[in-house]
Amino acid sequence: MDVPHLVAVALLLSRDRVYVVRRPPGGALPNLWQFPGGKVEFGEHPWDALRRELREELGLSIARGNVFGVYSHVYDVDGLHAHYVLIAYRAAIRRNRLLEGDDRRWTTASGLRRLAVLPGTKPIVADLLRRGFT
Asked: How many domains does the chain have?
């Protein structure tokens, strides 16, 4: 197996809700929900990658939070065979408003169980629930 891909994801929490985005219909693992974030480039710190990705994808500025957890997942579906290591950060929104729509929304952690989430996201959801986010 190749070297794992390192991914940084943001747990944007507001009261009892967390922000999720849906993967585009034309790409790998289409229409599944995940936490916003992206791949870490070579030589880049995961936090810097997360800030870059959220600025590019959502036009969002965030304040650094603590590492919530580190997770590992191997995908072997639909021709995708890859190992991902996800670093989940709790992050606070500095400015900008997160919009809701068909491809992004605020939901409760328990509401995530009703969404089709990316398999690598499921352990993060379980940790959110275990830590009392409902």
From this structure: 1
